[in-house]
Amino acid sequence: MVHLDDQPITQYDDNTMKMVPWLEMVDTTILVALERVFGADLEWLSKLNHKAGGLHTWQVSLGCELREDGSKGGFLHYGYNGMDFISFDKETLRWVAAQPQAQKVKEEWEEDPGLSERNKVYLEETCIEWLQRYLPYQKEALLQTEPPVGKVTRKVVDDSLEVLICQAFGFYPKEIQTTWIRDGEVCQNETLHRNVAPNSDRTYYVLLSIEIDPKERDHFQCYLEHEGLQEPLVLAWKDETASANSSAIISAKFSPFSSSIF
To answer: Residue 68 and residue 44: Cα distance in Å, rounded?
Structure first.
């Protein structure tokens, strides 16, 4: 996954490459090369620990920052089997082991001063160059919005209790106002919100639910406000006997908005 600020811009796996539309110019050969490097690291680690059988994971988190005052930052962290393992200090050109098992890796990597120098150059120069290359395309993204699509479903608990669930998905930017209303009154305290979460295509989704008496169901509506909507989206659950679907799904036209890198 590659992020530009808090926005996912590229997701790569062995089978497919998914791009955010406004950053389709990302060079996929770079990601393929990184995959090979990380795979080689994992194979090397398994040889260091001959007793370790089964499935293992090697996670890498790296990135750079270009601050408002012109100063630069960078980080390179590794995780092994879901735990912090080793990280690079670009100021001292040393490796910091987070696990006893990482000591062997630290010793091996510090025997090659060139590796540390290359990592420093990457974080302070190469990564910053990429950042500056893709940053202008962010302005193009600021002219786009994706309106939410809304869907209301219900979950029956018993004869006297059910849960109405409102889903808003496929929207961009992240900011959205959501709540349940009863006869025009906001049910702020009764509404259970889930955090807004990202999709792989840069859009977001959110869920909110409320427990109600089934007899009062027709009094409740889901209220959505988003920059991509020309007017608020108001949804209510519809009985499948009254509609071909057991849920209400509505989308709307969109208008210009705002957004954000690595």
So the answer is: 40
Q: Is residue 99 exposed (0-12), middle (13-18) or buried (19+ Cβ within 10 Å)?
A: middle
Confidence at residue 57, expressed as pLDDT on a 0 to 100 scale: 87
Beta pairing partners, 212: 162
Cα gap 45→57, rounded to integer Å: 10
Please report, as a single letter, which amino acid is at residue 50: H
The pLDDT tens digits of the residues spanning 207-222 come to 999 999 999 999 999 9
How are beta strands 220-225 and 177-182 bridged, if at all?
A: antiparallel
Give first-to-last CA distance, the chain, whole Å: 10
Distance CA(66)–CA(261), nearest Å, equals 10
Query: Residue 8, Cβ neighbours under 10 Å: how many?
Result: 18
